[in-house]
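Sample pair:
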Amino acid sequence: MLPRIDVTALNLIKPEVDVSLVQIEGALSTFVEDNANNTPLAESVEQMEQVYGALRLVDIPGAAELAEVLFALLRQVNELQEKTPDIYYSALGSGMMVLGRYLEYVQIKAVNLPQLLIPSINEARAALGVAPLGEGYFLDVPYLPDNNIVEPLAIDHAQAIVLAKRIRLMYQIGTINLLKDQAQPVHFRLMRRALERATQLCTGKPLALLWWVGEAALEAFSQGVELNPARKQLLAQLEQQLKLLVLPQGVSQPVEMTVLANSLAVVGLGETGAKVEEVQRAFDLTSSCISQTQLKIQSNTMFGPGGSVIKTVATVLKDEITNIKEILDVIARGSRNNDDNDEENSYESVAASILKASQTLIMLSLNDVATAMRQQSIIVSKWTEIPSENALNTLFDVLLQADNSVATLDREMTPGAQTVINNTRISLHQLDEARSFLVQETRNGLSLIKRSVLSYIESNGEDPMHLSNIPTTLQSSSGGLEFLGVPRGAVILRTTVAFVEAWVENKKMPNMTIIENFADVIACVDYFLESLEVNKPISENVFDIAEDALAELGYPVPKQQAA
């Protein structure tokens, strides 16, 4: 399962970050074309620093790391001016593109996978002449398992030194072939056997843990984890650690945590193997890492069509499919046939529109529904008279399938959108419209409550009639939240009803602290609904404030319901 995060803070800053990235790219392009025009470039350095600072504040570590190195690159370009090497421009261009796409990915998926950014970060670091980040840079090692992993070897110090030299030689033979891309299964076995003996040699010592994890990393490589340049570097790092074993106090050396983290990152990518699974369980890597297959899928998702492209295409397709359905509806009612000399509404034009839509669906990788649409275009092109009801129903079913497929894809590119539907005969677009209407009406109800309370305050509490409709409105708004799938908000409003009823019955003007607490409840729920209205859902943590306010009023929300 992908590690999910709260993207509320990101939703707030992302529009400004997007604008800044566009402006920085424009300034860089202007400078490349005309080195004398460097004012926008200097301004872009400040903008990237602000982007970096904002991403640190919202705790998106991978994005912040990439923004920081891009900031350093921009600062160098500003200092070097026309002497800037081309490698700087290449790293900046690709880095800013990746940064923008990653932020969109995090916002949409509500997941944080900073390892997706390591190649881009390292490209920028290479341009600056800085050492690359390791695979495990963003990995928090949860804990260190017991060092007594295997039975120790019954040997003395002198024998241990001889064995350490032999172990290192075994490992080197395998590593040399791997680094030359000449690796055979025998080389992996040789290296694994070397680390297995190193684990025995160091049992009871911190280093035993490193060799144990390193052996699992080698197993992951032998089972198909890609051996890229960064991971080849890990093999060299392990060899350097083996070198320590020949020292007088070699087995007692501390673990190099960077090498351990890099090894664990590789193990986390593994999908099979007894040692891999053993280490993954010991370090609980399944909750912090994803497999190589999953990583590739997420990388393809991140670099696939952007959200803006998807939404534009989805809108065009929606309009096209709606137009087709309208023409077919006219045909189905028998008020038009193919003899009307209306080329735009002819069967041929409908068939052409369906075929065009199918081609667009293929571009969006919606292959199954695209095939169904293409088949229907062939059928419609052969119509010469009003088709049977069964033929029309079949076509309408395919069009609804296409419409819902596009709507689902659009929802997947919308942060927090619900993509599950139980009834495939329902139009998702119509469902979205109904949902949008319900959100708006529920917010209207809360606005009415705010106005009623304000009128009550302006009357100095002498006209309690202003409060009379608030309980009913709260109940109605609560029902709206239930339909919207926000039960926690619904319970909060239902709990608030009891407070308002007691308020009305008391017939006294409460102090401002009480009124402010009540206002906080309504404001929090309204704030959450507003996020739904603009398709940028925030965390339900905002309800914590509402529940605290109700508790202050003496009406705590039942915990079993609030959860």
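The chain has four domains: 8-128, 157-301, 307-412, 428-562.
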